[in-house]
Amino acid sequence: MPNIRVELLAGRTIEQRRQFAESVTDAAVGALGARREDVRILFEEISADRVANGGTLASEDESRAGVVSRFGADGS
Fold first, then answer.
1. Residue 73 vs residue 35, higher pLDDT
2. End-to-end C-alpha distance for the chain, whole angstroms
3. CA dist., res. 16 & res. 22, Å (int)
4. What is the percent of the chain with per-residue pLDDT over 90, rounded to a whole number?
């Protein structure tokens, strides 16, 4: 039974998570030979002030401003 944990910035829609889950499940079935019903995906949503890239918080990184503004920097 593949257990797949996905960490992403908070704010993705249910439809985005649904699409992602379908695609990743398809990949696990194809690559691992897993039964579709045995593929488990856990979404962990994190706020931009709880992740750093290259030593800079995502919420303070100007190069990531577009992503952060779309997916929430407010800790939600």
1. 35
2. 31
3. 10
4. 62
Tokens of 54: 């290259």
Res 73: pLDDT: 52
pLDDT at 62: 87
Phi, psi angles (nearest 5°) of residue 62: -60, -30
Backbone angles phi, psi at 75, to 5 degrees: 85, 5
Looking from the CA of 32 toward its CB, the CA atoms found within 13 Å total 15
DSSP category for residue 10: T
Residue 64 structure tokens: 């990531």
Ordered structural domains, the chain, with CATH: 3-71 (3.30.429.10)
